[in-house]
Amino acid sequence: MKQERKNYDPAFQTKAVELSNERSNISELAREFSIKVTLLYKWRKEYEEFGKGSFSGKRNLKLTQEQIHYLEKELEDAELINQ
């Protein structure tokens, strides 16, 4: 039987990340929230990269600055070719 993936509320994820930045023992915090410590570290990394909008549930819409710059360059090149 396949186990379903848990969906965490964005407010819960944000609060967990903010508390993890304040505390020294992240493993203990993860136990308090009943989540795996690896998941908390993943959330921290995502929060660091994307900020407050990290947990909007629209993960596929997030782009890094590098990706945005690349896509803008591609668009500019395509527009020049079409002129």
UniProtKB/TrEMBL annotation:
A single GO BP annotation from the record? Answer: DNA transposition
The lineage's top-level taxon is Bacteria
Q: Name one Pfam family in it.
A: HTH_Tnp_1
One GO molecular-function annotation for this sequence? DNA binding
InterPro entries given in the database record: Homeodomain-like_sf, Transposase_8
Q: What is this protein called?
A: Transposase
* Taxon lineage: Bacteria, Pseudomonadati, Bacteroidota, Flavobacteriia, Flavobacteriales
